[in-house]
Amino acid sequence: MKIIINDSQHEAAQGDRLIDVARSGHAHIGYFCGGNAICQTCYVKVLEGAELLSPPGEPEKAMLSELLLAEGNRMACLATIEKPGTIRVLSAVEEVKRMAETDPLQLPAYSAKMGWEALVAFPATIAMQFERTLEGHLDPLGILRDMAGAVIGAIELASALILGSKAGEEPASDCCQGQTGEGCSCGSATANGVRRAA
Fold it and tell me: pTM for this structure?
């Protein structure tokens, strides 16, 4: 099945979380907490295929306001692909980037809305996180490992971008036996553990 994240197509399977598909494809979705439903940086707006995803559970309902849920927003770390088909999402960070590039005057209103909606959900979010902690669902060492992995992934992505590759592709010098340039067409599915963009 295909999933389109920020207009870039990725392969996915039933049972995959949106955040895992995004991370493996180097899509522009935040994941500072490593996908542990803590940091709220993985907001995405589902533009197509919402019915193919798991329904929002209690953690997502606690962390997203009713308005954000009604607008099709989900947390990529909690939304799981349940049915085959096409899913198209736009991450919050990509939405802000596009707004800054095309209509920056909308940024203050967007920021105010997102800030207000986070404030509305804050009491439920704190209560839910406290309950998760008491029930032993949060592993502090595991979360730190996941956060370190997220930072390392961001550094790897930044390095690839600095070296001139596109997101989701390895730098040209790593494929085609060292040949460089836009004409690289080795066709390898993966190299250095990085999936090539479709």
Answer: 0.66
